[in-house]
């Protein structure tokens, strides 16, 4: 049994229209002129619908699999079996040459035989613990229709992207004001917040440019980018959709890695620039004051302290520059870098169509990526029930707004390569260190001891 095809659905609609026409034709002789008028109008509408369905039926006519099978051979893909799938089919066999040589040649032959453009996918399917190579063929018109139905590159899409951008700028500015001194003036706000605001926008801008360049290199169309506003970090990242097919697993891996890796590196660069320009770790002249609790639950800082030794004074106070009732002085640019790492790590979670979910699909396949997505959603749900508003909000967003999986790449057989597995592991470690809950936090004397701050801030 194949999947229900568009052609079959069109035939059902056509039969429904014909049946309705017959019913209305029997009622046109009604003595009531008003009823007759509306019946004639309905008949004309149904006739136009029937004509439109006939044209669409011709455009979405199912492919003749017997005719297509003759296009396969020893010099491209040797097909041993075929089964219907939608309006196309799945041909089971094995490749005889590299995919980059086979795909354009075979696609041209199949399009000529079908009398319309077709799209190919090369994949592996498992049956009775045996892996088989398959070539899936579908009419290009149906794939274009699928992308058209979910397309965000529309006037409303761009308007929505602009509105979300303006909203996010507002939440970043609002969030920035939370970290000022209680008696801060407007001038203090400008001098303290502008570096944070500028740093955050720099991270978003650099990651967006890198993503667009990488997608263009692979010939992948991207939708407008939508910023996700948040009153906790100012912004929870950038999301967009793929509006064309991905050529291979390398593209599925490289595009999200371009965004996340560039965001991490830009965040690190901003932090180092801040420390070098200040000449110290005490925040400089225009420091923002962050409550110590923001730091001690961060495993990355705990690990750094474990390596370089406790960051404390002679009395054992962790973060000794903390000011009672105000917080820990941090350079705005350095804080922008820290927020950038946190936001990037949230988007690296292997859930749905977040960047981490796309990377998982490229490295481990759709089945494993689905299991990781379910597990991540459950963990975020548990975190939300434990009292974390961020876990609850991000879990709901990732599950319901970015759930599901990407369409398969056209080449699902060629592996992404060992280098990409290594980079994926590095990114996973950074994400883990940044987000994983750590009850011990930063410490003053022994590892995993409870943190102590002057004034119990």
TrEMBL record:
It is found in: Plastid, Chloroplast membrane. It comes from the Eukaryota. GO terms for molecular function: metallopeptidase activity. Keywords: Chloroplast, Coiled coil, Hydrolase, Membrane, Metalloprotease, Plastid, Protease, Transit peptide, Transmembrane, Transmembrane helix. One of its GO terms (cellular component) is chloroplast membrane. The keyword Transit peptide applies. Residues 7-66 form a coiled coil. GO terms for biological process: proteolysis. It is a multi-pass membrane protein. The chain crosses the membrane at residues 156-180, 192-210, 262-282, 371-401, 421-440. Belongs to the peptidase M50B family. PANTHER family: ZINC METALLOPEPTIDASE EGY3, CHLOROPLASTIC-RELATED, ZINC METALLOPROTEASE EGY1. This is Peptidase M50 domain-containing protein. It comes from Papaver somniferum (Opium poppy).
